[in-house]
Write a structure and sequence with these properties.
heterodimer, A: alpha+beta, GMP Synthetase, Chain A, domain 3, 7 helices, B: 64 helices, 66% helix, 1% strand, MIP18 (chain A)
Chain lengths: 196, 1208
């Protein structure tokens, strides 16, 4: 059954345009000449013995959860209409993710953190805004530790009925009830399939 | 008679095919034994009489089709089957011609009278008769006549029966004698063809169609039918076009593609259908959107087949070209599907090739000319329209590039059109597309030159006479102006244009011209080549010429393109590389390398890496030389390699200060000098790979000829040989005899030169100032030496006495004390490099009692007291020397006792070092123990039996109460750990099952004693556990899979006790530092146990079924204990708290592995087994999702998702 799409032509970002965690230092160049760089410029330049290598330690550095982490969790959710992710459609945007208190000021590992996500639907009358919000909420509740409180909202002015949508998404009972609905649950599961 | 009747009856009554065959054989034998006497054959034929005479009732039934008579029909069919079955097994030359005629008459008559029962058997029988010796062509004509009489009832026959008849027809029309008889009788009117067409035109069975198409193709090709008949045949087969096949549940072995092919061969069978075929196909194509891609492809392929196969193209193809072109051009111009575009271009190319003629016979010039004119007329205007530039160019290129004549006809005007359009481009994309076309024309030109010998001899002459002015001016008129305008701060679209220019320049330099004497030369003059080179060199050296502020672009695509272009350029224009080298050297020398910035170092690294790639990743071609190049200077294949390496050697060292004179700074980052050495290493790798790609592995493995001692030859060279070679002096050049420029000879010359470079660097490192030689540079030099040495064969390694050079470093030792040499990291690395590459046979001389080898294998006197780089190197050298010992008596070691002594030495050392009375300080023990274990690893890899004698000593030592015992137990895994030095590539002796061997002797005996039990020595058991875990975690799963039961209990214990190797507190009040080290080792033990769990879970999870509770509890405990937020419990007894001492990385590794094990469990076991653990585990994993380490968080999330699927 073909349904008319709410927004038939959304703007799509390519994967390389999405915000990502840039590695420390400059990324390795991949020119035609770099095929033997693994041998002549190895990551661990001391190939003999077991001296602890500093590079490996770097992978295990302590890195508290930050906005980019949250972005990575939810940007890969599929859009219910288009074969693209919420990140590609800019429904989820890095600057619209707020952690409070911020990761650097976290007093202890178990202190309460609030994650506020502001979604921007591709058009302001998007009928699926609630479903998208629900999916984002589900994804975060499934992946964040228990001391994180999730608050999903529509960005101010981005949706014609943002008050209503926000109310729905903020109401725990309604969210729980929505997920009791098989059709909705299936839809959300489908959207979360693309999350690694 | 009675006998035949009986058989016939049996045959009719039988339903079993084998039985029927037996009966037929009996009848055939009977006829054969009578030599086909008329009586016997008559009896045989008459035996079916009773079924043949139709009763009146039969007739009625036949008419009204009543079911009541079907029994008779079946019986009659079977009776006829008896006759045809007999014929099938009957000797082919037996029947006499009168019998033969009668049989043909009889079976032929069936097609007129008995359409219900007689056809299958008759068709079979006729096919048998046709294959018999007595068969005459005129009988074939009669058979055809008879069979056609079946008329309308043909389509009522079963598909199998029809297939029989088709096969019969095919056999007849294929038979040259029958077909000539047919032609004689019917002439061009081919009356029988019309009958056949009427008979078969409604065929739908795919198997039958395959044969029917074949028959029609033969009729067209061989029978010369009149135009009316041709048209009739065409009508019949074209009605099937386009053909498809419904997918069926029972595949019949024929695909839609087979049917298409068969039908296509009807279309292309003969040019006499050309006047019908082309308009028909073109009209089908012009149906627009109604045609699917598959059908379009079918049409295009059919047109192509017709063009290729029709003879006399002038009469049969030329009249249709315009129509074909007018229809096809839109497929490319407006087409979107790649497959159809490709197929269309194939058709256009096929036309151009057909109009040119063959390699032996050229067609008239005007045919091709008018075709090319037609195409160019339609496409030229499109080149000015950015929307269609690409498509129009594609069409033109396809036609022009099809053959030399077409190219020569139109290339000048094509280039001219492009040039005009480039002057007023509509957009950067338009420029890019136009350049793309120009480049592909240049590429096509190179291809045409390459294949010039395969065509007509006239083609080559025409190529030699080609006018070239339009090509000569390309650089200054087209490429250079675009480059100059776009090169200043290009934006992304313009970068694409510049990339095209870069590619174009490379193609331009590669353009050959044919000289009057038949040799090839370069089109561009040396000055143009040089100009192009310098243009691209500027791009490549940009990183170093600009400052970090001016060059912040992340995108290196243009530079990479320039690198590829330069590589192609210097293959043809060999002087270009020398020019590049001069420029690179000058740029590098301009900077100060004493304390360079990170930017400078990266720029240097990139530049050198590219410089190396350009010169060495492909072997220069030896054909193309510029017309104005001095004749006496023939480029050598090694030329670029020599230029590169001598330039790098000249640059080295870039800085000689900044380091203390003796100590080598190990923690420092890469230095400029290290980059130079890395590039020398890379040049050897690249050139070797290029040789392998060009000549293949076999050629490279050709043994070296004669008794050569390269080192002796090298001694005659002056110290400054690199600069002499560069200047082109005679001396060093003679070293590399110019006669061997190909294959194995070239490769050997390359190795010789590489060894010379290694020698040069070794001497510089060993005897020169130490300033330039940082650790990275030395490691690279060592690996480069290993690479060069391991490519030499054993004979050469021996004749050059490389084993001793590993300790002499290609020079005299005067002035260097023995002590400083052996304890030095520098010399250690140099030694290691050569030893690593030597073959076991070349090392023999070293194993003299008390000689160099023994000293290295069991010396514990001369280096620092803690694990260090020196001890790593010593361990590596020990492993190699022990491994490459072949164990046989030799001149240097007549009793083959060296290895025994070495292993005894280490056995005694271990015993002493852990004995409470004379125990060694643990830190020192740690360092020496690594050497001991590596020596054992070398011996274990070749399964030396002396190792077995040492095993009880090791077990005993591991159980010693001294802390050294635990260090030893922990390190046993080194014996089976993968060691990059002990690989077949490095000529190490590695037995295939040595890990099994080592495991069964080292770890397996400890499995039982390691089990915890109240009556056992708990410390010994714990130590054994540590030892087992250390070994097992380094082995593949298959090695220990038989002992899973015992092993899992150990693993669970390891998790739950976490530590405990020294658990009873040996009371010697270890210091904080020592405590930390011990804890680190314990966390290593836990990590090892977790690694083994991961392996078991992925290979044989069911083994863990009985231990799930313990595993989950243990793993959860490990995670919590390793958590950085876990509360530190007071008191030394808390094993969990003790894990906090090791580094954050080790803890994080434990946490990651613990979560990995936990996450794998729900995927491997049924829900009912894990349900009970679900809730607490999910709670714990939810917390783990907030782990401070990102990598751990990722694993936690996936584990949490796996557990979330368990529904409580």
């Amino acid at each position: 059954m073909e349904r008319d799409l709410d927004n038939a032509n959304p703007t799509i970002l390519s994967v390389s345009q999405l915000p990502s965690r840039s590695r420390k230092g400059t990324a390795a160049r991949h020119g035609p000449d770099s095929t033997c760089h693994g041998i002549i410029y190895p990551q661990h330049h001391w190939p003999y013995g077991s001296s602890p290598s500093s590079d490996e330690d770097e992978d295990y550095n302590e890195d508290p959860m930050d906005e980019q982490d949250v972005y990575d969790l939810i940007s890969t959710i599929s859009d219910p209409e288009h074969p693209h992710t919420l990140g590609q459609l800019s429904v989820v945007r890095l600057p619209d993710i707020h952690l409070s208190p911020s990761p650097t000021e976290l007093p202890g590992p178990e202190s309460l953190v609030t994650v506020l996500i502001e979604l921007t639907p591709t058009i302001n009358h998007c009928s699926l805004a609630t479903v998208i919000g629900l999916a984002v909420r589900c994804r975060l509740e499934q992946t964040l530790p228990p001391n994180y409180r999730v608050d999903v909202r529509m960005k101010d002015g981005s949706h014609a009925q943002d008050d209503q949508v926000n109310k729905q998404l903020g109401d725990k009972e309604r969210v729980a009830a929505a997920l009791e609905n098989d059709t909705l649950q299936r839809m959300v599961d489908k959207m979360l399939e693309t999350c690694a | 008679m009675a006998q035949f009747k009986q058989w016939a009856l049996e045959y009719v009554l039988s339903d079993d095919e084998t039985a029927q065959l037996e009966i037929a054989k009996k009848a055939a034998t009977e006829i054969e034994s009578s030599r086909a006497s008329s009586a016997v054959v008559g009896n045989w034929a008459a035996s079916v009489q009773q079924w043949m005479t139709p009763t009146s009732a039969d007739d009625d039934e036949m008419e009204d089709g009543d079911d009541g008579g079907s029994g008779d029909i079946i019986a009659r069919a079977k009776a006829l089957g008896f006759l045809s079955g007999t014929l099938e097994v009957l000797e082919k030359g037996l029947l006499k011609s009168d019998q033969f005629l009668r049989l043909i008459g009889f079976f032929g008559a069936m097609f007129s009278y008995d359409h219900k029962a007689g056809i299958t058997a008759s068709a079979k029988a006729l096919r048998q008769l046709y294959s018999m010796k007595a068969f005459k062509p005129n009988m074939g004509v009669k058979i055809l006549d008879d069979v056609c009489k079946i008329k309308e009832d043909f389509r009522l026959q079963t598909a199998v029966t029809r297939l029989e008849i088709y096969e019969l027809f095919l056999g007849l029309v294929q038979d040259p004698a029958v077909s000539s008889e047919l032609r004689l009788q019917y002439g061009p009117s081919c009356g029988f063809v019309i009958d056949l067409l009427q008979l078969c035109q409604n065929e739908r069975d795919p198997r039958n169609l395959m044969v029917w198409f074949k028959i029609m193709a033969l009729l067209l090709a061989d029978f010369d039918p009149s135009s009316e008949v041709t048209e009739e045949i065409f009508k019949v087969f074209s009605a099937y076009f386009p053909i498809s096949l419904r997918s069926s549940a029972t595949p019949i072995g024929i695909t839609a593609e087979d049917l298409k092919e068969a039908l296509r061969s009807c279309f292309s069978s003969h040019q006499r259908v050309a006047s019908h075929a082309f308009p028909f196909l073109v009209q089908k194509l012009d149906q627009g959107d109604a045609v699917t891609v598959a059908v379009k492809l079918d049409i295009l392929k059919t047109i192509q087949a017709c063009i290729k196969r029709y003879e006399n193209p002038q009469a049969n193809v030329v009249p249709h070209i315009e129509n074909i072109w007018n229809s096809l051009k839109y497929e490319v111009r407006n087409g979107e599907v790649k497959e159809t575009i490709d197929a269309t271009l194939d058709v256009l190319r096929a036309i151009a090739r057909r109009l040119d003629g063959t390699g032996t016979h050229k067609l008239e010039d005007s045919l091709l000319r008018s075709y090319v004119d037609l195409v160019s007329r339609d496409c030229r205007d499109d080149l000015a329209n950015p929307t269609y530039t690409k498509q129009a160019g594609l069409l033109l290129m396809t036609v022009i590039g099809a053959n030399i004549r077409a190219y020569l006809l139109y290339n000048a005007s094509f280039i001219d059109t492009i040039r005009q359009n480039l002057r007023q481009p509509k957009s950067p994309t338009h420029t890019k597309d136009l350049l793309l076309l120009l480049n592909s024309l240049l590429k096509t030109r190179i291809e045409l030159f390459r294949n010039r010998k395969q065509g007509h001899p006239d083609d080559e002459k025409a190529l030699a006479a080609e006018t070239r002015t339009h090509l000569d001016t390309l650089f200054h008129d087209v490429y250079l102006p675009i480059w100059t305008t776009k090169a200043k701060g290009p934006v992304s679209e313009e970068k694409d244009v510049l990339k095209q220019v870069t590619q174009g320049l490379a193609l331009l330099i590669g353009q050959p011209v044919l000289q009057p004497d038949g040799t090839l030369a370069l089109l561009c003059s040396a000055s143009v080549c040089s100009e192009i080179c310098s243009l691209l060199t500027v791009t490549v050296t940009k990183g170093l010429t600009l400052s970090s502020n001016d060059n912040q672009s992340e995108d290196t695509a243009l530079e990479d393109e320039a690198v590829l272009a330069l590589r192609t350029i210097v293959l043809n224009y060999t002087d270009g590389y020398a020019e590049l080298a001069v420029r690179v050297k000058a740029e590098i020398k301009k900077r100060d390398w004493v304390s360079p910035s990170e930017y400078s170092l990266n720029a240097l690294k990139d530049l050198l890496s590219r410089f190396t790639f350009i010169g060495c990743s492909e072997l220069p071609s030896s054909i193309a030389t510029s017309t104005d190049m001095p004749a006496q200077k023939q480029p050598s294949t090694l030329e670029h390699f020599i230029t590169l390496t001598t330039s790098l050697l000249e640059l080295f060292p870039l800085s000689s200060q900044g380091r203390s004179s003796e100590a080598i700074d190990t923690e420092d980052g890469p230095s400029a000098n290290a980059h130079v050495v890395s590039s020398l290493h890379a040049s050897v790798i690249w050139f070797r790979d290029a040789c392998e790609a060009r000549y293949g592995k076999e050629v490279l493995a050709t043994p070296f000829s004669g008794d050569q001692n390269w080192l002796q030859e090298f001694q005659q060279l002056p110290e400054d040989w690199p600069s002499q070679i560069r200047r082109g002096d005679e001396g060093p050049d003679s070293l590399l005899s110019a006669s061997q420029q190909d294959g194995a000879g070239l490769y050997h010359q390359f190795l010789k030169l590489s060894l010379l470079i290694v020698r040069h660097l070794y001497r510089s490192a060993a005897f020169g100032p130490r300033g330039p030689w940082g650790e990275r540079a030395l490691v690279q030099l060592s690996q480069m030496a290993a690479l060069v040495v391991r490519n030499l064969d054993e004979k050469l390694q021996v004749s050059c006495n490389l084993a001793h050079q590993a300790f002499d470093f290609f020079g005299s030792l005067e002035g260097h004390s023995e002590q400083s040499r052996s304890s030095d990291l520098l010399t250690g690395l140099l030694t290691l490099g050569i030893l690593q590459g030597l073959r076991p046979g070349a090392l023999e001389g070293l194993y003299t009692p008390g000689g160099e080898a023994e000293r290295f294998m069991c010396d514990t006197s001369s280096f620092g007291r803690s694990p260090s780089r020196e001890s790593d190197i010593r361990a590596a050298i020990g492993a190699i020397l022990v491994n490459k010992y072949n164990g046989k008596p030799s001149t240097s070691d007549p009793d083959s006792s060296v290895m025994k002594r070495v292993l005894n030495f280490w056995g005694n050392w271990v015993t002493e070092s852990v004995a409470a009375s004379s125990a060694m300080d643990p830190t020192t023990f740690h360092a020496y123990n690594r050497i001991a274990m590596n020596v054992l690893a070398g011996a274990a890899a070749r399964q030396d039996k002396h190792v077995l004698a040492l095993v009880p000593t090791l077990h005993q030592a591991a159980a010693s109460p001294h802390p050294n015992g635990e260090i030893l137990a922990q390190s046993l895994g080194l014996i089976v750990k993968e060691n990059p030095l002990l690989t077949p590539a490095n000529h190490a002796v590695v037995k295939r099952f040595y890990k099994q061997w080592a495991y069964s002797h080292l770890a397996k005996p400890l499995l039982q004693p390691a089990q915890p039990a109240p009556d056992k020595d708990a410390l010994a058991a714990a130590r054994y556990r540590v030892a087992v875990l250390s070994v097992v975690s380094k082995c593949p799963f298959t090695v220990y899979q038989d002992d899973l039961d015992l092993l899992i209990r150990l693993l669970v214990t390891a998790l739950s006790s976490r530590g405990g190797g020294n658990g009873n507190g040996n009371g010697n009040g270890s210091s904080d530092q020592q405590g930390k080290e011990e804890e680190a080792e314990r966390s290593a033990q836990v990590a090892a146990a977790l690694e083994v769990f991961v392996e078991i879970l992925s290979h044989e999870p069911q083994a863990l079924k009985g231990y799930l509770r313990e595993v989950i509890r243990g793993v959860t405990g490990v995670y919590q204990a390793c958590s950085p937020f876990a509360p530190v419990k007071e008191g030394g007894g808390a094993a969990a708290a003790s894990l906090k001492a090791p580094s954050g990385a080790a803890q994080a590794t434990c946490r990651r592995l613990a979560l990995q094990v936990l996450g794998a469990i729900p995927t491997r076991f049924e829900e009912r087994h894990v349900l009970v653990y679900s809730l607490p585990t999910q709670r714990m994993l939810a917390v783990a999702c907030g782990d401070p380490v990102r990598k751990v968080r990722e694993v936690a999330r996936s584990a949490r998702a796996n557990w979330a699927k368990i529904v409580v």
